[in-house]
Every structure is written in structure tokens, then in C-alpha cells.
Specification:
Elements: E1 2-8, E2 32-36, E3 45-52, E4 73-82, E5 86-95, E6 98-110, H1 130-143, E7 150-155, E8 161-168, H2 172-183, E9 194-204, E10 220-229, H3 230-242, E11 246-252, H4 253-262, E12 269-274, E13 279-285, E14 288-295, H5 299-310, H6 314-324, H7 333-360, E15 366-370, H8 379-387, E16 391-393, E17 400-401, H9 410-416, H10 418-424
Parallel strand pairs: 1-3, 4-7, 6-17, 7-11, 12-15, 15-16
Antiparallel strand pairs: 1-2, 3-6, 4-5, 5-6, 8-10, 9-10, 12-13, 13-14
């Protein structure tokens, strides 16, 4: 068991009831790699990569916008996405209503186990002891020279309970009193063991009475209800404190994803987020999550399928996946090794969209793909052909200023750091 640390140069709720809150480049001359013997029980290889960006040194001062005292800017914030396969950090600053990328870092868990199948048997950063996660965060912060300490962290979808309920609306105070009783119908564990949060996402005005003397129907509201186990929130608070960070909020990862990818776009959209160990399919309308479906196949399972089929190492399989992807070529045996798994992703996406459209009588306008697998050659086009819908590769960095030198790899970064970017965009 080894860990490697590589550093590249400049190119390369307290959770409250308040709505929306859950508790709150390559410069070869400077690149080097360190190899040590730090051991992590039950884990094979841990790769830590920190790529620093120095935006200030690459922009010429503009007298019209120069602000030496930062009177109208905000200090930097960190978006921290602790997933099953990686810890991702994005550091943003906001000035004049625009976000600027200051830094980003990745702590990635690698496995050499080709024979295991299913995400349940794979390694997971989330199962590491707190001290090892703290160590990873500290290394990212130190080696990446990250200056900000205010952090917003994400809670993974599988650790939360979320649903939309419809209730009569009298007043916000009355709604707050009634919600805990209504929540018992949807949350499978005692309410004393979770933190509840809610947000009104739609209001239906009363219909006019059809006949004289008949009473109109009462106003109803749609409420997005979320619950997070208390022990999960305490774990995150311990980790952030141990890493020397000021945890300003905890947020559902889908909420951060919606913020990064859609902004103020309210059109009905499906987001397919392909992670290392699982895939989430999220239906969004009017800026809020309406349906979320987790599918237990991710990029790592596809890599293992290639490794098994071709009898190569995980590292070689990953290299082939990134190089060949879904290209239509006679010699593309990589395509054959993973096409059945990708077809299952398409099937699950189509089923989730179809169920929503039929139940809500509402058409989904488009599908956005995000996650590391989206960088694979011809993947977006293949997904579009199979799904027979408008499918696009999402860009979480579309509203973020970044150095010109990052332009060749910005889409790859955006796919990998979408949740972390959305977290760092949050107002606190």
C-alpha cells in the first residue's frame, strides 16, 4: 500500500429550519512526485493531486475594475465534495457579481481490485476513519496553498431522505408546526435522529367556485422536505473542525449541482451525474429537485469491466477508457467491454424521465450529463443517440472566470468538480 502526492504548477444545519439550508497548468518545471509508505487499512492506493491556479498573476490590471481594498468583493469560499471515490475542493472568490476560480484540488481513492463487482464491495472514502479524511483535507489545503477557511460541504444523496409533499397552506408558522407530523409518513427513522429542513417550492392558488355558494378550494403548497441523520451532520462538523475549516453550511449535493449547472434556468431538465461508484438521475423543475434516482453503477465499475474483459490492470483499463471511449471503430474493443453497462445507464435515465413525464404530464426539455465519465470520447453523442433526446455535456464553470491557460482542460475540470463548484457558489 502506497500513497503518492503530485503537485503541478500554475497551469496545469447548525442545520436550521430556514429554507434551503442543511447545516449550515501545467508547468513541468514545478512538477514533482513524492512516494511514501503511509498505510491505510483495507485500502490499496490513494492518489492525491493538487493543481494550483494563480489567476491574479495571469491577468493584466484593469483600472476600471481594480479594487485594492476589496470593498465590493467577498473573501474566498471553499466547496468541499466528499464522495465515495474522491474528495474535491474548489476555491472561489466573488467580485462584482462574478465568481473567480482561485484553486482546486483532488484526493482520489484508487483500487486494484479487478474481480470485485458492484459498488457495495468497492472501497469508499466515506468509510475511512475521520482522522484519515482530515489528513486528506489538510494535505490538499497545505500542498495546494489554499487560503480560504470558510467551507460549504455536501451531503451525498444516499445519506439523506428527500421528498416533495403537498399541504394546505395557512401561514408559514402553521406550516412549520405541521411539517414534523407530516414528515413521519415519509422518513423511515425516528425524527429525533434526523435534522429536518424544508422549502416551499410552489403555491397553487385556490380555484374559483363552480357554483354560487360553494366554497373555493384552499390554497395548497408544494414543500421540498429533506432530512439528514444527526450522526452524519456531527461527522462532517468533526472533520471540518479537525481540518481547521469553518463549516458555514451543509448542503444536499443535488442542490449544489443544480446551482452550478442551471443557475436561474427554470426549465424542466434531467441531470445525469455519473460518479465513481454510482450514478444519480435528478429531475429538476423551476430550480428544484423533483425526483432523484440513484443507480449503483459508476465510472469505476465500467473501468473494472474493461480490465476483466481485456485482462489488463485497472490503471491500463482507465487509460484505454479515456483514450478510446465510445468511438465507432472496428478495433475499439474497449467499446464492447463497457457498452452493456452504459446501455443500462441510458435505460435507467429513460425510465426515470418517462415515469416523471407520465405522472406530472410535463415534458423534460433536455438532459445534462456530468461527471468524470462524460469526458470519455464520444460518450455524450452515444448517450444522445440511445436516449433519442436533446443531450448535452454540462459545464459547471460556465459562470466562473478562470485563467486562459486552463481553457484546453476546463470542460474536463467542470465535469469532475461540478458539485464542489456549486457549493462554493452558495451565498453564506
Amino acid at each position: 500500500m502506497i500513497w503518492t502526492l503530485s503537485i503541478s504548477g500554475r497551469h496545469s444545519r447548525r442545520i436550521s429550519r430556514s429554507r434551503g439550508t442543511l447545516w449550515e497548468k501545467q508547468d513541468p518545471k514545478t512538477s514533482y512526485t513524492l512516494v511514501g509508505d503511509k498505510t491505510f487499512p483495507r485500502y490499496d492506493i490513494i492518489i492525491l493531486t493538487v493543481i494550483k491556479t494563480a489567476i491574479e498573476g495571469r491577468r493584466k490590471p484593469n483600472p476600471k475594475h481594480h479594487n485594492m481594498f476589496n470593498l465590493f468583493g467577498e473573501k474566498g469560499k471553499l466547496g468541499i465534495d466528499i464522495g465515495t471515490a474522491a474528495i474535491k475542493i474548489v476555491e472561489l472568490e466573488k467580485s462584482g457579481g462574478r465568481f473567480t476560480l482561485k484553486n482546486y484540488g483532488l484526493f482520489e481513492l484508487k483500487s486494484t481490485d479487478v474481480q470485485s463487482s458492484g459498488s457495495g464491495t468497492g472501497q469508499s472514502i466515506l468509510k475511512l476513519p475521520d482522522q484519515e479524511i482530515i489528513w486528506g483535507l489538510k494535505e490538499l489545503i497545505k500542498k495546494g496553498n489554499i487560503k480560504s477557511t470558510d467551507a460549504i460541504a455536501s451531503i451525498p444523496s444516499f445519506s439523506t431522505f428527500a421528498t416533495i409533499i403537498e399541504m394546505p397552506y395557512l401561514s408559514e408558522q402553521e406550516l412549520a408546526k405541521a411539517l414534523p407530523f407530516e414528515a413521519r409518513k415519509y422518513i423511515p427513522i425516528p425524527l429525533s435522529e434526523v435534522i429536518l429542513d424544508w422549502s416551499i417550492i410552489d403555491i397553487s392558488s385556490p380555484a374559483s367556485p363552480r357554483s354560487p355558494g360553494s366554497a373555493p378550494k384552499p390554497t395548497t403548497v408544494q414543500v421540498f422536505l429533506a432530512a439528514v441523520p444527526r450522526d452524519e451532520t456531527e461527522k462532517y462538523k468533526r472533520i471540518m473542525k479537525g481540518a481547521g475549516l469553518n463549516l458555514k453550511a451543509l448542503e444536499l449535493e443535488n442542490t449544489a449541482l443544480i446551482r452550478a449547472l442551471l443557475g436561474n434556468d427554470l426549465s424542466p431538465t434531467a441531470i445525469v451525474n455519473i460518479g465513481g461508484r454510482s450514478t444519480s438521475i435528478v429531475i429538476v423543475n423551476k430550480g428544484y429537485e423533483r425526483v432523484s434516482h440513484n443507480y449503483e453503477i459508476g465510472g469505476f465499475e465500467i473501468t473494472k469491466s474493461i480490465a476483466r474483459s481485456l485482462n489488463v490492470s485497472i490503471e491500463k483499463a482507465e487509460e484505454l477508457k479515456r483514450k478510446m471511449g465510445m468511438k465507432e471503430a472496428d478495433e475499439n474493443i474497449v467499446n464492447e467491454a463497457m457498452v452493456s453497462l452504459i446501455d443500462m445507464m441510458v435505460f435507467e435515465t429513460k425510465k426515470t424521465i418517462s415515469n416523471y413525464e407520465s405522472s406530472k404530464n410535463q415534458k423534460i426539455a433536455r438532459v445534462l450529463l456530468v461527471g468524470g465519465l462524460t469526458n470519455m470520447p464520444s460518450f455524450v453523442n452515444y448517450f444522445k443517440q440511445k436516449l433519442n433526446m436533446d443531450v448535452y455535456g454540462a459545464n459547471a464553470f460556465a459562470r466562473i472566470i478562470y485563467p486562459e491557460s486552463l481553457k484546453p482542460i476546463i470542460q474536463e475540470l467542470a465535469n469532475a468538480f461540478s458539485i464542489a463548484a456549486g457549493l462554493a457558489m452558495r451565498d453564506i
